[in-house]
Design goal:
78% helix, mainly alpha, 2 domains
Length: 256
């Protein structure tokens, strides 16, 4: 069983590195990693069914702009493996994956703030010396390994020592530590939102950003309804375009 636990931890490691090294290919999602968990444990049907249930639960957990969702990669691997090993099904997978996903997302925020800042300084120094190879090495190792190795160790220890021990360890973390990490994650979200606004610093695009913000914060609309509304607005703008690709209003202003 130890070899199987090590292989499952390796799957969690690769899944955790997906968005860091491979450009968010979605290959680290529970729907995909459950197949490998099933192959390792010799029960593919059960693993895939649990993975599909976890994927449906985490389907909306995608980092977009300032949104920081729970971690779905290593937590999905752990929940799937635990459910298959114990034979308890989806309920046990969800019960274990949820707290672990929240903890791992807090850990990721810490890695972005501390090892990430260190990596940025090292990369800047390497680029100042025109050493592109060293800059790439720092970029591909410091933050990815700081995220991937602890995630894989957490999965291995959870399987080897039991889920109760890991849940107890997570519960024993002082509240002030969790509060501090939550504050840091909030600051990172503000930075991400500011970067998003800076990217969209165009007088024609910014109103759409603030309209979306108002719809969510003050009108309580969900993502699907806002996406449908945005699609309708896009269609109306497309129909109002002139032959040159500009809207009729802009074309009149240019002629004037």
């Amino acid at each position: 069983m130890v070899v199987q636990y090590l292989l499952i931890a390796l799957v969690a490691l690769v899944a955790s590195l997906d968005e860091q090294l491979f450009g968010i290919t979605m290959l680290g999602r529970p729907l995909f990693t459950s197949l490998f968990v099933g192959i390792i444990l010799g029960d593919i049907p059960s693993a895939v069914m649990v993975g599909a249930a976890l994927e449906s639960m985490f389907m909306g957990s995608v980092m977009v702009g300032a949104a920081v969702p729970p971690e779905v990669y290593a937590s999905g691997v752990l929940g799937c493996a635990f459910a298959v090993i114990t034979g308890t099904g989806t309920a046990a997978a969800v019960a274990l994956a949820l707290p672990v996903s929240v903890f791992l997302q807090v850990w990721r925020n810490f890695c972005y703030a501390v090892p990430g800042a260190y990596a940025s300084r090292k990369i800047d120094a390497a680029l100042a010396n025109r050493d592109l190879a060293k800059a790439n090495l720092y970029h591909l190792t410091i933050v990815p390994l700081a995220i991937g190795i602890p995630s894989a160790l957490l999965v291995f220890c959870s399987l080897y020592f039991g889920a109760d021990l890991i849940n107890g360890a997570l519960s024993s973390i002082p509240q002030f530590v969790m509060n501090g990490l939550n504050v840091a994650s909030g600051v990172l979200a503000c930075v991400g939102f500011a970067l998003l606004i800076r990217t969209m610093s165009n007088n024609k695009l910014l109103p759409y950003l603030f309209i979306g913000f108002i719809l969510v914060m003050y009108l309580g609309m969900d993502v699907i309804s806002i996406a449908a509304l945005a699609a309708c607005v896009a269609v109306l703008l497309m129909f109002n375009q002139g032959p040159s690709g500009q809207s009729d209003t802009l074309a009149e202003e240019d002629d004037f």
